Amino acid sequence: MASSSAIRKVTVIGSGLMGSGIAQVCAQSGFKVVMVDQTREILAKAKGGIESSVSRVAKRKFKDNPASSTQFVEKTLSNLSTNIDSSGAVKDADLVIEAIIENMDVKHHFFRELDKAAPSRTIFASNTSSLSITEIASSTKRLDRFGGLHFFSPVPLMQLVEVVNTPQISEETMKTLMQFSKDIGKVPVRCKDTPGFIVNRLLVPFMMEAVRMLERGDASLEDIDQAMKLGAGHPMGPFTLLDFVGLDTSKFIVDGWHQKFPDNPLFKPSPLLNKLVGEGKLGAKSGEGFFKHGKK
C-alpha cells in the first residue's frame, strides 16, 4: 500500500517495456497511476501486458489463496489508467516519470511541454540509462525538483533503483525520491549525475574491454566468458551479457559517452561492435550477435 505522504499520484510517460513495468510496480504498491503514450492501441497492448504480468505476480504471491490473488489483480488494475494527452495527464500528478526514447531533443521537447502543464509542486524524473539528468532537466524551470529514477529490466523483478541527484536538486526532493523507491518495494542507491550512474558506468566499460581483448586476439570470446563466470563468479560472461543487453544499445551508450568525453579511453568505440551492428547482428533480439541464438 502507498505510504509516501509526498507522492500519491504518478504519471508515467511511455508504455514500452520500462514504462509499463514502472507503471505496474507503482499500481501494485497502491499509487494511482496514469500511463501515457501516443495512441490508444499502444496503451491497450501495454495494459494487456501489465494485466498478464500482475496475474503472474499474484499467483506467486498468493499461491494458496485464489481469492486474494484475484483481489490483488483487480486492485492493481483499478489503480491504473491511460491517457494519450500527456499535458492533461500531469495536471494533478505528484510525480512524473519519463521512460521514452533515449534522445535528448525528444526528451527536451516533452519536458518543456510537461513543465508548463504540471503544478509547480510536481517532481519530474527520467528513467534514462545513459543521458545526463542535468541536461534533460535544463529544459524545465524546476531544477530543484528534477532527478533520475533509473529502474532495471524487468522492472517487476529487479530490485534496484538508481536515484540520481543533479547539482541543482534539493535535498527534500532526493529524500522524497528515495522514500518513493522504497514504497514501491525497490532498493534505492544514491548517485551523482555521472555518465552511466553506478551500474552502467562500471558494466559498459567492462563489456567494452572484453570486446577489445577479442579484437587484440588476447583470448577467444568463449574463453573470456568462461573465465569471468568461473574466475569472477559472474552469472554470465561479458559477451553473453552484451548479446542480451543488445549490441545496438551498448553501441549507442558508448558512442554518446565518447562524443561527450572523447579523451576518456574507457569510452572509445569498438570497430568490431560497430561492424556487427552495421550487419544487423544486434544480439539475442535479432537472432545473432557475438553468439547465434534461436530465430526471433
Structure explained in plain terms:
- This protein is an alpha/beta fold.
- The protein is built from twelve helices and eight strands.
- It has helices spanning 17-28, 40-61, 66-78, 86-89, 104-117, 133-137, 171-183, 199-216, 221-232, 238-245, 247-260, 271-278, and strands spanning 9-13, 32-36, 80-83, 95-98, 123-126, 146-151, 160-165, 187-192.
- The chain has an eight-stranded mixed beta sheet.
- The chain starts with 8 loop residues before the first strand and ends in an 18-residue tail after the last helix.
What is the percent of helical residues? 40-55%
Into which percentage range does the β-strand content fall? 5-15%
How many whole angstroms does the radius of gyration measure? 20 Å
Q: Please identify the structural class as seen in this structure.
A: alpha/beta
**Total number of helical segments?**
12
Order of helices and strands: EHEHHEHEHEHEEHEHHHHH
Mean pLDDT: 95
What are the salient characteristics of this protein?
12 helices, 8-stranded mixed beta sheet, about 300 residues, alpha/beta
Provide a short characterization of the protein structure.
The chain contains 12 helices and 8 strands. It is α/β, with parallel strands linked by helices and 296 residues long. It is globular, with a radius of gyration of 20 Å.
Show the helix and strand layout.
Elements: E1 9-13, H1 17-28, E2 32-36, H2 40-61, H3 66-78, E3 80-83, H4 86-89, E4 95-98, H5 104-117, E5 123-126, H6 133-137, E6 146-151, E7 160-165, H7 171-183, E8 187-192, H8 199-216, H9 221-232, H10 238-245, H11 247-260, H12 271-278
Parallel strand pairs: 1-2, 1-4, 2-3, 4-5, 5-6, 7-8
Antiparallel strand pairs: 6-7
